[in-house]
Design goal:
By secondary structure, the protein is of the alpha/beta class. The protein has one domain: Purple Acid Phosphatase, chain A, domain 2 (4-Layer Sandwich). The strands form three sheets. The chain has an eight-stranded mixed sheet. The chain has a five-stranded mixed sheet with strand order 4-3-2-14-15, covered by helices on one side. Strands 7-8 form a two-stranded antiparallel ribbon. Strand 12 and strand 13 form a beta hairpin. The N and C termini lie far apart (81 Å). Bound molecules: fe (ii) ion. The site of fe (ii) ion has 6 residues, from loops.
């Protein structure tokens, strides 16, 4: 009996040593390694596409004709693919779509939504493809101890001056609510701490910070209700309730205290309200294709135009194009 116990202890020790050896070592990176620079110009245009939802059933010819029309019309300086680009897609479709976006020779970024990893590929496949694209600005360090695969920022520079800082954040997909239910994920503590550190170490104090992520903050609901009651300024319409994580979070307060003055998300396909809430613009980007549920009259892209004036509601507009007309006529 005693001998059996000793053997068991030796076995357990061996397993623990093996497990410790297998654990990924956290690799620290300097905050400059998360930064991408672009030249700022007055009227810099960010085109945000959300919830494209390419699947195995998608008519890629129709979809790319529509997006080509919109990208050529918007003439953006930067394209933000803000989540749910894919849902039940294959590797070939991921390859095709990212190569299509890259073919415009415009800088672009990819942000994970809650569905992008639900395809016929491993979780990180979209990130691997993005990393090979010529015009993508994505930066990812898988073992840096920060949750998510997008924790980088794009600094818009005028000479040596920082004019705008654009944070790209992977807000995750799902969190277990109880043994049988899940809720949506949210920006994690490690990601918020990363943003706070970047902002705290910035010498320049005369710039505007914006953040892009897929799933809205819970404050989007309060903001829209306040807008409907005339308490807050805003525009647009929400046709479905906001669907953030049900967990309590201090995401909004921490982003606001870190100097974020505008957040842009997708996720809720028939919402396009933009509300000035407690000094932060909380904006929905309009759904960008007809895949799965949508309303044809709020479909297109979100165009965020930046000027050197204070960032505000007037800098944001959404433009909608008739899908059928474009597909049929071009
Ligand atoms: Fe979606």
């Amino acid at each position: 009996m005693k001998k059996a116990k000793i053997v068991l202890l030796i076995l357990l020790s061996a397993i623990m040593i093996f497990a410790a050896g297998c654990a990924k070592k956290v690799e620290k990176h300097d905050i400059d390694e998360y930064r991408q620079n672009m030249e700022y110009k007055e009227g810099f245009k960010i085109m945000m596409l959300t919830d494209v939802h390419i699947s195995m059933l998608t008519n890629l010819d129709e979809l790319t004709k529509y997006l080509t029309h919109n990208i050529n019309e918007a003439k953006p300086d930067l394209i933000v693919l803000n989540g749910d680009n894919f849902f039940e897609a294959t590797k070939a479709e991921v390859d095709f779509y990212f190569s299509f976006i890259d073919s415009f020779k415009i800088n672009w970024v990819f942000i994970q939504g809650n569905h992008d990893h639900q395809g016929v590929y491993e979780y990180t496949y979209p990130d691997e493809v993005v990393s090979k694209m010529e015009y993508s600005l994505n930066v990812d360090y898988p073992n840096d101890g920060i949750d998510g695969t997008q924790n980088f920022h794009v600094d818009l520079m005028k000479g040596d001056d920082l004019v705008y800082r654009l944070f790209m954040i992977d807000g995750g997909s799902y969190l277990r609510l109880n043994p049988i239910q899940y809720t949506y994920n949210q920006i994690s503590d490690s990601q918020l701490a990363h943003i706070e550190k970047i902002q705290a170490e910035e010498d320049d104090d005369d710039y505007t910070s914006l953040a892009f992520f897929h799933i809205p903050l819970k404050e989007y609901k309060d903001a829209y209700e306040g807008y409907q009651e005339g308490k807050y300024e805003g525009k647009g319409t929400n046709r479905e309730p906001s669907c953030p994580s049900v967990f309590e979070s201090d995401q909004f307060e921490r982003l606001k205290n870190a100097g974020i003055r505008g957040t842009f998300c997708g996720h809720d396909h028939i919402n396009n309200a933009v509300v000035d809430y407690e000094g932060v613009i909380l904006g929905y980007g309009v759904k960008s294709t007809r895949e799965i549920y949508h309303d044809d009259d709020i479909l297109g892209y979100c165009l965020i135009t930046l000027t050197s004036e204070e960032f505000g509601l007037d800098n944001i507009s959404s433009v909608y194009v008739d899908y059928g007309k474009v597909v049929g006529g071009n």
